[in-house]
Amino acid sequence: xxxxxxxxxxxxxxxxxxxxxxxxxxxxxAWEFPNDESLKAVETQFMSGPGIxxxxxxxxxxxxxxxxxxGVADGVRWYDWYTLTPVDAAPGENKTLDAPxxxxxxxxxxxxxxxxxxxxxxxxxxxxxxWSLLVALDARGRAEGELYLDDGVSLVVNATKHVRFWFxxxxxxxxxxxxxxxxxxxxxxxxxGIGYRTVSVDVSLDGSAKDAEGFKLLHENCxxxxxxxxxxxxxxGVWKGEFKLVLRKK
Length: 250
Fold this sequence. Notes:
- The chain has helices spanning about 1-5, 10-20, 30, 125; strands at about 25, 45-50, 50-55, 65, 80, 95-100, 105-110, 110-115, 130-135, 145-150, 160-170, 170-180, 185-190, 200-205, 210, 215-220, 225-230, 240-250.
- Helix content is about 10%, strand content about 35%.
């Protein structure tokens, strides 16, 4: 439930895409990877949008489950949702995954940026939480994503906002278009698959540099980087123009 609620921004964006363009929210693996004929027979896994792979437990009392990781033959990277550790899987391998009672195997596809908010006990309280971004890098060190916003209540929507994210050349950029007013700050950004050590970050909004006071960088052995304490720099709303976060290498 916690994962479902923190992914509400990502899922809400998927529903908007379904409404606007007809793209399915939940997808067969073969939909996302149509060139792999073997995936047409996979009935025990599915994608949530293009960026998240779900491997549910379908057998009573099972503590493990098997699943494939599509695209690895073409260089697609996958990361464990919980640890951000890169998945070591061979092309076509039916890999055994731990799945105890309270653990749902979830993996993030490299090359995608997932917008999130801290899970509350209702959708309303969740929508009032500060923003977070998960940036899962592909083999080229790039990622992209998007976010759709409206008031979440009105049947006839009068104001919307579209935010586009991309990461390349050590720089995370977000641009926003639309009239919907969102005043929430960005709390943290997590990178999966960073291949270097970052010593500092620069943050700017619409070209105006922000004070780095309070920023905290946490490096993990799996190659993940967590940047915390961005609330002060983005107070009053982060999706109001162009946001940039630049990683400075050691």
